[in-house]
Amino acid sequence: MKKSIAIKAEEGDKFDFGGFGVQWKIEGPATGERFSVVHHPLAPRALAAPLHYHHNEDEYSYVIEGKLGALLGDEVVIAEPGTWVFKPRGQWHTFWNAGDAPCQIIEIISPAGFENFFREVAAAWGDMNRFAEINKKYNLDMDFGSVPDLCKRFGLTFPTLEKQS
């Protein structure tokens, strides 16, 4: 039998990708690889990622604070606290902070394993060649060309992928 645990707000490794953060909360091994949980804080008007397409994972985002915008296929959704947003595998999508105040979401990823994508990207931050290899490893398609249009369309910012000194 597995032990029950409590995870405090400050617990878990963290990384800030320049307005889009990740804090690891529940890792795959703790759930028999069925799912994992990460906490994503988003700065005001920050785009979390280019349009992307998961071949292996479903993502379920629960809005804790602020306004989460999401483009799910062709549908635009604005979700406020208490709302769940389902981003199924096999669908182009992205998400962002749709407000002028911080936004925080809890993301359940099923099956587990993709939480490690964020760790690998953090370790390779600024190395676009390595980033492309990581995307391939996790069977993730990413449309970097979508970023300028998304930023213009929704009034967003997106970080440069250069190493921070």
- Return the CATH topology: Jelly Rolls
Q: What's the rounded overall pLDDT mean?
A: 93
CATH superfamily: Jelly Rolls
* CATH class annotation: Mainly Beta
The number of helices is 3
Structural class: alpha+beta
Order of helices and strands: EEEEEEEEEEHHEH
Question: Judging from the principal axes of the Cα atoms, what is the shape?
Answer: globular
Number of strands: 11
Secondary-structure arrangement, i.e. CATH architecture: Sandwich
- How much strand content do the residues show? 35-45%
Distance between the termini: 46 Å
In percent, how helical is the residue content?
A: 10-25%
Pick out the low-confidence regions. Answer: none
Q: Going across the biggest sheet, name each strand in turn.
A: 1-2-3-10-5-8
Evaluate the radius of gyration: 15 Å
> Largest beta sheet, briefly?
6 strands, antiparallel
The overall number of domains is 1
Task: Describe what this molecule looks like in 3D.
With 165 residues, the chain is of the alpha+beta class. It has a single domain (14-153), classed as Jelly Rolls, CATH 2.60.120.10. 16% of the residues lie in helices and 36% in strands. The chain has helices spanning 115-123, 128-137, 147-154; strands spanning 14-16, 21-26, 36-42, 51-54, 58-65, 68-72, 75-79, 84-87, 93-97, 103-110, 140-143. A 6-stranded antiparallel beta sheet has the order 1-2-3-10-5-8, covered by helices on one side. The protein is globular.
